[in-house]
Amino acid sequence: MSPLLFLIPIALTLGALGVVAFLWTLRSGQYDDLDGAAERIFLDDDRLEASHDR
Amino acid sequence: MTTGPNITASALPASLPPALLSAFVAPASGRAQQLELLVEGVHCANCIRKIETRLAKDPAVTRARVNLTLRRLSVEWVGGPDHAEVIGETVRSLGYAIAPYDAGSIGASQDRTGRELLRCLAIAGFASSNVMMLAWAVWAGQAQDMPASTQAFFNWLSALVAVPALAIAGRPFFRSAFGALRAGRTNIDVPIAAALILATAISMMELMRHGAHVYFDSATMLLFVLLVGRYLDFRVRARSREAIERLAMMRAEHATVLLGDGRTEIVPASAVEPGMQVVVAPGETVPVDGRVTSGQTMLDRSAVTGETLPELINPGDEVLAGYLNGPDILHLRAEKTVAQSHLSEILRLVEQAQLQKGRAATLADGLVRIWTPLVHAIALLTLFGWWFLGGADLPTALLYAVTVLIIACPCAIGLAVPAVQVNAIGGLLRRGILVRSGDALDRLAATDRVVFDKTGTLTDGRAELVDMPSNPVALRLAAALASASRHPFSRALTRRLGRGAAAEDVSETPGAGISGLVDGKPARLGSAAFCGAAGEGGDAASEVWVSAEALSPQRFALADSVRPDARETVDYFRIAGVEISILSGDRLPAVESCATSLGIADRRAALKPAQKAALLSGWKADGGKPLMVGDGLNDAPALAAAHVSASFGHGVPATQVAADFVLPAEALSSVVVAHRTAVKAAGIVRQNLGFAAIYNLALIPVAVLGLVSPLIAAAAMSISSILVTMNALRARPPRLGAAG
């Protein structure tokens, strides 16, 4: 019984961290252009992003 | 308005005048300026790279990012708003058509709704998976003598996760339900909200009483499943609506105004005042109603009135917004503002028709109206039955009543109907067919009469050569003279005959014909009188004659040819047992010949927009469910008045606003795909609702008797949701060429 007392809250906390991370990605607009994200991995010119898309 | 009915939407904005982007610039943070542009033709990583690297070379630009999903470009730069024109020109020079994006309030609230739903979905997903995990442990524990204290601990943890999650993620449903209740109505969200709130409250009560019936898992899962349906539904509708708005934005109307000092300025058409001088270049659309002051030209009125033959316009004649200019420059004095124009009158007719129509009741609406009070009544009966007759205490009676609500909660309607619509609408969207709303599919499936417009719908909407002389000399002369003119008939000849030899000394007499020297000898191309031929043929076709000294007049016949896929479309509806009619604004002979060639008996010609709408309203009043297909401005009121309607991507924007379906340009047969999909989707919806009825009939009595445990409720709910979703996956449009 006693391991459950801390293991399950830990599991729930880790899960909640995942949700918080998801909400953060949502807020920062990472789901606004899903098609573009799929295509952008083919662009190997990182300087463009670094200098002009802060 | 198009520069020719054969041009697709994507090709149009190339003619957009450049000096208009500055008006859409918004100030960004600091001294920066920001502009959102719609970009047509971006579809891969290479397009992104081309546009972004090119703009990055501009020292003023601080940020340029292409959104491939929305096909939008967002640019920020430091400097004046005028720099927008430079940026626009840069993107245009790369070969992409652009138009300013006018977000308005709709776009912003759409984004917010989408994000809120996704946020709720994430929270509900987290809560339902974790609560389910704890619930399974308790169920297993009940069978294997788990200590009551451990069960209580798990249940309290469930409550800790579920209650805040329900409070946050349930808000879209609570808001809608309370909104409906305040207005004295009920909607599908009322029973959902009731089930969620009561299930949570009852579970908390059970928790306090150390009872075993804790429904946190059912409540969170119900919420999660319904949110999935809601989110999918939102995505597809948002994409369709966005695509329709985009069509309109890509076609914003502009006018070239002649200023007092002789300069010209390009302004939005809505800024033109009566009395202003407007210049209309060849191939441009007339922006406002007005009177011609100078210039003589042929105007194509097909988009406004449905008449195929171009009309000769002289100074002093009245022209209407939406006419397409022919070969010559036209100067006109505006007589009305855009708000008072013929176009706006048509739009008012559209609004009237839409008001009268109201919202068609769908199958699901009807079911909810019967089902909601019924379930609430059964739940109440259960409560009082157990409390007064069954001898149970109030908490137990309440528990049984809530179980009824949870079991009967409309998963089949809340998830199954949207899931079918999402599949059908999403599939159609991939085929280029835009659907305005989910219930449009319902209405299309019920169609019992299809009404076609002629010009631009059943036909190409432009004159094509249908008959020509066999004499090679005549063909050679005609080709040479025709290539020197931009008259619609000449262009039809050029399309068929090629450009031919060069003609010299060409002069064109508007309304009569062209004369010139071909191989050094005089020749004429034009009307019968112009070429000295006898009499005009009185049939539906128009004619052009060619003559020379050594050549007696020879006749070319032109007609607005029937679309290649019109035949199969009409045949499909005939086999489907649907009545077919033609309502056209064109002259009777032209309508007769088109109707005869397609075998359509019911045809009416020379109809005004209001008459078309009245005919459709008449059919509807007789209990009919007409489908209207049209593309012209004169069809817009009829589209709005019809039970269900379809327009084309190449049509005038007013028709796309009025129509339920927007078909890809030049593809009449896609109305067949839409109809087949709609019929199939309606069948699947009926199956799903039937399944839901069986499920409820079987389980509600069990719940009323108080025999349903949380385990049974959870299992029943997941199995029914999965079954119904799997069935909904079949609702995709049929493959091309597949039998229906």
TrEMBL record, chain A:
Question: Which residues does UniProt call coiled coil?
Answer: none
UniProt keywords (A-Z) are:
Membrane, Transmembrane, Transmembrane helix
Domain of life, source organism: Bacteria
Q: Which InterPro entries match?
A: Cyt_oxidase_maturation_cbb3
Q: Which residues cross the membrane?
A: 6-26
| NCBIfam families linked | ccoS
- Please identify the protein, giving its name as recorded: Cbb3-type cytochrome oxidase assembly protein CcoS
Protein species of origin? Bosea rubneri
Which gene name belongs to this protein?
Answer: ccoS
